[in-house]
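FORM 7B: Structural annotation worksheet

SECTION A. Query
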Amino acid sequence: MTLAFLNGEPALADALRALALANYGHFTSMQVRDGAVQGRDLHIQRLEDATQALFGTALDGESALQQAAHALASAGLRDASVRITVFSLHFDYRDPARAVVPDVLITLSPSSATEKPALRVKTYPFVRPLPQFKHVGTFPLFHYRRQALAEGFDDALFVDPAGQVVEGSIWNLGLWDGDTVTWPEGPALRGTAERLLQAALTRAGVPQRSTRVRQDDLRRFKAAFACNASGLQPVVGVDGVAWGIDTALMARMAGALEASPWEPLA
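SECTION B. Predicted structure
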């Protein structure tokens, strides 16, 4: 069951009409455990930067997280999957430049499972628009994921016009050659989990690099994984390239991610 709170109060269906009709806004997603979250500053920065860019006004990210904490307390929850969406009840697609006050929608759903199945993914030529923002324009992401499922795969992996791997439908890709983690460079949403992992691997002294990766380059890697706010998943194949599950790698990545500090939501 998903619970929704708008500007600190239980959300009514009528109040959400603007988001459903205009589909203009942005969000961040996180896992909350015992009232704490990882990458707290990353979520605040994401919310504040995108609000300034998309609405031309400031958002107090701390206040948004406080609203999330209030929503959890109101629901009697300490653990949940939390999404904070910023939109405006008064946004008018006929006059999108008109100044509006942003509204904050908090949605709570059950925590993500810690154990996730391996993914075999299919590539599609696609680059998300405005990839620097986690915006609500998710139609193509889910469309290609649906297409992948219809073709017998588990998810979609996107490649740019030059044939370079950029990102998964709602996740970032990490590649392993037996020594170094490679993060594909390109026009993609840089996720909070990816950034947390990069920082954790740096602290642990694990070699890593960000570089352009062409589809043809995938064969030289030994293993791969997907990461997003819900956690980690092994990737066991991309199109005709197959890998096994590297349990040692997955344990190492999970340990690095878990070592990232948990901070009180508010």
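SECTION C. Observations
The first strand starts at residue 3 and ends at 6. The chain has a mean pLDDT of 97.

SECTION D. Sign-off
Analyst initials: ____
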